[in-house]
Amino acid sequence: MPKQRQAPDALVASSNHLPDEIISEILTPALRVPDHAFAAMSARSSFMSFSESSSAYLLVCKDWLRVATPLLYATVIIRSKAQALALGAALAENEELGPFIKKLRVEGGFGAAMHKVLQHTPKVTHIYLSLVIAAGDNTLTGLIKGLPLINPTVLMLDWPPSDARLKIVNATRSFAEQLPVVFSQWTDLTTVHISNNATYYLQSKFEAMADTLAALPKLERVVVSVVAKDWLQFPPLVLLSLARAPSLKRIEFISPPHEAVVGWALDRRRSFVQSMRNHSRLGPLCDFSQLSVDPAIADTPQAPSLNFFVYPPQLEANPEQEATIWGRVFDFHFSSFVEQSSGSMFRIPRQFAILRVCQKFHRIGTPIAYRHALVNYGHSASLVNTLTINPALGKHIQQLTFQSLHNTNHIKAIVQHTSSLSVVRLTGHVLTAPWTAFKNLAETAGTTLTTLEGLKIGKQSGQLSPSVFASFPAMRKFSWDSRCIFKADRKTASLSAFSNLVELVVNGCDGSFFTALSHMDLPCLRSVDCASTISGGGSFFEKHGSKLEEVTVSCTQLAEKRTAVLESCSAITRLGIRSDEKVYVSSKVFSVASHDTLKRIDILPTVGHGLKRPGVTNSLNDFFEKLGELSEDFPQLEEVSHLWCSWPITEQEIAKSKWVNWAEALMDNDIYLVASNGVRWRRRLQYVPKSTRTGTKRKAS
Q1: What InterPro entries does this protein's entry cite (predicted)?
Q2: Within the chain, which residue ranges are assigned CATH 3.80.10?
């Protein structure tokens, strides 16, 4: 009998089907909570996430729902009352879910719902309890009533840190007093995990817990997370109490992942380790192998390597290849100096030491060393002298950065030797240069410069000709900071000036500067950034606004109807708003009622007082309310960011946060508030009892 052919749909179905074991292997890395993260003991929880919830994996298909449910519930983190209520309701409704939970981390009290949670999780083996109870979270009866219903093998106890004297509330004291009674019933407990960061104001209660734990019949292991400098002077009484456990086999000291301990902290830790090893009772039990710095290992001398370096003969036979390879080495070496020198003293001898190794290094490395000349305090004169003695070095300089400059004549003296200079930056403390210094720069390096930033030019008497800007045909990024007055006559401006300019930054200017620019074509201009003190510029935005993609202006400019920034810049996708201590962001910045292409607004205050400064909160509230009202008139707007915005991570902080209130109000209009770190706010779980739910669907967030 011939073999029956399978239908095409059946073939597709069979090929798409994966065994549950394979699906489990795929989903486990995404759903598993690492052991070190589950046991982390620090003041700031690591489980505040703004990414998509891991429960989204369950919605992919029925196969994933079936396989992922046990994986998702294997480790449960409870950080709020809403989570506790939702979990309790889910476990009560579906009795099969409770046995899946093996690890339970409870970061607070969370009311009567915790009793229902613990009532339905009989197979919990790892329990994390936090004694850091926030003010207002006073309902611990559910947790105390439910803890005796489980019998875990591992207890992780996070107690208030040593700097928490003012934060300790009555609920913490009450919880600490009742825990010994709970612990005495956990007869299966084999491991206790604590931290060395504990407040002295609850020391007697910690010792009472330790005495109870030491009396348990199966306690074999104590783990201490070394997260603070406490307990690094003498053996703590808590460990002495735990060491009385008859079945205790070891006390392990561990440190956080990727921890680096140096200097006096390293010496203090070594002293503590030595004192613990010498202790008659604790010494034989202590295990420091997982501590980031173990003196026994750190002090072990390393044997010299027997693999002597032999210079590859093929390099010596091919000078061109040799120069290429060493050139990359030198490029990495000198670029790292440039990156590390930001904000610190730049030491030229240290940078150039490698060039003194041999003639070959000097020949290959010199052009690379001078490619980016970074000049700090006192070194501008040294560079001038070097170029005067050996002018040929100047041809190698492509970037020139002054981290401080106390003699503006040095700019001309250096630039006149540089035929390939493309970038000039002035940062930090730099003197105001005279107009003649800018003219000299234009004459000597204007044709090759692509970037000029940070040069502050003093005001020159009389009206100046804007024709000087025609000396920069290759300029792509130009920063202007000067109160010089330019002639308003259209004939004095060159239409082709700044023909390649893409980005314009204005830190200070007279109104005539914008007028002069409005007489130029500026065909490549795409971005404009104005400081918070700038006003005006209507003629400039009227002429060039249609080609701009990103614009940053002051609150004053945005609110001025005669400047008409939003009306003129009809194609921008990103708008920056700069404010200072005199003018805050408010609803007044909306000079127009609509914009079709704007996707993002960045609020960039220049002062760092935050919401505590009088009037700021009201102004921002006014701004966000107005933005919500105008959301339909800004159809492409997706994000609003603020330089001061940061997201709270605890339930109590979230309830008090103005940023959260503003973010959730904007989300109702499909606009996201973005913190300074680039993270959008994500709505927290808000549990609504099933009996009070309505048929209406909430907007997805």
Answers
A1: LRR_dom_sf
A2: 73-296
